[in-house]
Amino acid sequence: MNDLESKILDVLKREGVPLVTSEIAEKVGADRRVVLRRLQKLAIEGKIKGRKIEVANGIWIWWV
Q1: Could you tell me the fold of the domain covering 3-63?
Q2: Which of 16, 22, 55, 61 has the fewest CB atoms found within 10 Å of its own CB?
Q3: CB 21 within 8 A of CB 8
Q4: Would you state the pLDDT for residue 56?
């Protein structure tokens, strides 16, 4: 796990509520597309969970 992934996990644990990709990107200070790829990787590894919100133009929410 790299530094960005650690920051993402810290944000999700600290907030305690599901966040959208752009909120996480803002909190860790990284590009949204980069953060999305890391979030997907973390989800595949089973470290976080994510879900696409169909009614919101495909926005993803993420949580621990």
Answers
A1: Arc Repressor Mutant, subunit A (1.10.10)
A2: 55
A3: no
A4: 67
Reported as a single tens digit per residue, the pLDDT across 4-58 is 999 999 999 999 999 999 999 999 999 999 999 999 999 999 999 999 987 767 7
Q: Which 3 state secondary structure label does DSSP give 61?
A: strand
Beta bridge partners of 20: 61
- Whole-prediction pTM value? 0.91
Query: Where along the chain do its domains lie?
Result: 3-63
Residues 27, 28, 32, 35: is their CA dihedral positive or negative?
A: negative
Q: Which residue has the tokens 């890391």?
A: 38
Residue with token string 């919101």: 56
